[in-house]
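thoughts on these tokens:
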Amino acid sequence: MRELEAIRRDARREAVYGVVEAMAQAQKGIDLAERHKNPMAFIKGCELRAKLSGLLIERVEVSTVDLKGSLEAARTRVINVTPQRLLCAELGPAAGQAVNGSAD
């Protein structure tokens, strides 16, 4: 991890781009959004400045999922609707009798 940070630090030094420059550019974006009355761009600029300053930290969590188990659990929650049941629901009990071949 230290090696990666050293590489990043060297790259920033060579590019002459760091937090100060990024904050300045984000502020320019905020100012532009304010002039053009674009609230979403304004909020995104504020969000970027908060991330750059360390006030807002995104956390990413990677976990494994039992896909087979999840699919089985989902199948138990599915309502079994056959065409006959659909027809009965739409047309009423008489349709069910016609499909079953029975008549009252």
